# Entry
Amino acid sequence: MGHDGMQLVRDVRKIYAFYNIKTVVISASIKSCYDAIQSIIAGADSIALTYPIFCQLLDHPVTREGIERFTDDYNSVYDK
# Structure
């Protein structure tokens, strides 16, 4: 408790790079979309997250709008 997990990811990434150690840094205990994005920004190669968080990362109003427009365009061309 009381530790900055993102700083830990940055530090681990920096140490491995300094010593030229080939490894994969995996960030775990992801509790939100914010944590997931910050982990990647901090240098994690991969993140371990729950399925609901994964779905939240893919869900965005602009994406939904784009899918609706694409579907409407498709249906107008193929008369469905």
